[in-house]
Amino acid sequence: MRFAGSLVAIIAFLASMPVAALQDPTKPPGIESPAIRSQPARSLSLDSIVYGRDRKVAVIEGEALREGQGANGIRVRKIHQDRVEVLDRGNPRVLYLDKLPQVRGTQ
Question: I want to staple 95 with a disulfide (CB 3.0 to 4.6 A). Which of 14, 18, 36, 46 is the partner?
Fold first, then answer.
């Protein structure tokens, strides 16, 4: 009976201790996983598109970029006549030209 009482005391003692998080035994020491933070989509301005058979250029945030080029965390994937597909910090986005206000002609 004395053994059973000791066993109960040890189990009660271990149960009262805080539980430590389990570590991945395959992870090299010193490697910590960075916290994943969702970044809100930033405002990007598509200023203009030059679209021709031999030349396609998009002006984004004042930078003239061709397909495959990048600047300031933006990489142009595909330029269309009315929109541009980009990677913004690795996230796919589509940028559209702002609609111009309708101007009435005078007669």
Answer: 46
